Amino acid sequence: MLTTPISERTLSRGMLDVLIRAGLIAILAVVCFRIFYPFGSLLVWSLILAVTLYPLHLRLRKRLSNKDGLTATLIVLFALVILAIPMYLLGVALVDSVDRAMEMAKSGGVRIPRPAESVAGWPLVGGRVYAFWLQASTDLTGLIQRVTPQLKGAGAALLEAAAGVGTGLLVFIFALIISGIFMAFGEESRHAAVRIASRIFGAEAGPKITELCAATIRAVAQGVVGIAFIQMLLVGVGFLVKGIPGAGLLALAILLLGIMQLPATLITIPVIIYVFATEGFSVAGIVFAIYVFVAGLADNVLKPLLLGRGVDVPMPVVLIGALGGMVTGGVIGLFIGPVVLAVGYQLFWRWVDDQHDPEVPVAVPAATPVEPKQP
């Protein structure tokens, strides 16, 4: 038949057109991804901040004659001021501390008390600690020269960590500014998100998935900030009672570390070492060290209690998503992980429940009677 070759030729052309279009779409997607990738972290942070602050935006908008642009601008400016004040105070305190340390080192005013004889009797490490402490009290210059090679590596690591914190802070500031633009067009952004989710998950599930993502982001953000604030209060009270110099600034630093999901032990351990070096191993010093160290680890207990509140998924799902996301994606993963896991959890149970109602009887065809064979 003559139609068979023509049909095969038409089919081949159709398949070739589909492959060419698919290839062009793939190339376009790759190019778009490469253009978007350098700004991915910034835009994700902007979206997280916009979703978190949008309820506050809605409350203030009613008092400002429903002016979205003015409301978003005021929120961003207020947040920048809150960030700028503690960062300025911390910078000034660090500069003053470095200047004092340099002056004390030049004048030779650094004096470390001799260790008590009981230190040598400590199990396992007593002898080494006693020898190290004794040399520090008698020959501090020689001790510094001996440990200089080890201090170089630690100093490089600290500088790298400080550079990372500074870069993250700049990204956070720019993300906060961009989040104000998202909040100014909040209704349009919400409708766009619902349309996209409805196109992916269906018209019925799309709005629910959108609300679930927003609620999860807000729950994690509020939990992170709330935990950091509680940890700041716990540790700050200990610093104030003990009379640590710059206790308020150190407490603010713990708040910032908690928000950035860095351990508070970066501050509590040096403070404990400072107390032992200046006051010795007294009962009050040991009690202070235990309290501050435990308070610095309080976030490990508070996260399971505060994360996941107000989300229509079980708390362990949000907690596992936050911890797993942080391990795999850093601070951004702390927010993305719970969202992805919560959406996956909802879609999984929706798939499980999407079946016939067990109470509705299923029609079973009647069996055809078989006539007995005649003998």
Structure in words:
It is a single chain. This protein has 375 residues and is mainly α. 80% of the residues lie in helices and 0% in strands. It contains 12 helices and no strands. Helix 7 packs antiparallel against helix 8. The longest helix has 45 residues, at 140-184. The radius of gyration is 31 Å and the shape is elongated. It starts with a helix and ends in a 22-residue tail after the last helix. The mean pLDDT is 77.
Write a brief structural summary.
By secondary structure, the chain is an all-alpha fold. The chain has twelve helices and no strands.
Series of secondary-structure elements, N-terminal to C-terminal: HHHHHHHHHHHH
Spans of at least 5 consecutive residues whose pLDDT stays below 50 are: none
Shape: elongated
Radius of gyration based on Cα positions: 31 Å
Residue-averaged pLDDT: 77
Structural class: mainly alpha
The largest pleated sheet is described as: none
Euclidean distance between termini CA atoms: 56 Å
Number of helices: 12
Share of helical residues: over 70%
Number of strands: 0
Strand content: under 5%
Observed structural traits:
375 residues, mainly alpha
Give the topology:
Layout: H1 3-36, H2 40-63, H3 68-107, H4 126-138, H5 140-184, H6 186-201, H7 205-242, H8 247-259, H9 265-279, H10 283-296, H11 299-306, H12 315-353
Helix pairs in contact: 2-3, 2-5, 2-7, 3-5, 3-8, 4-5, 6-7, 7-8, 7-10, 7-11, 7-12, 9-10
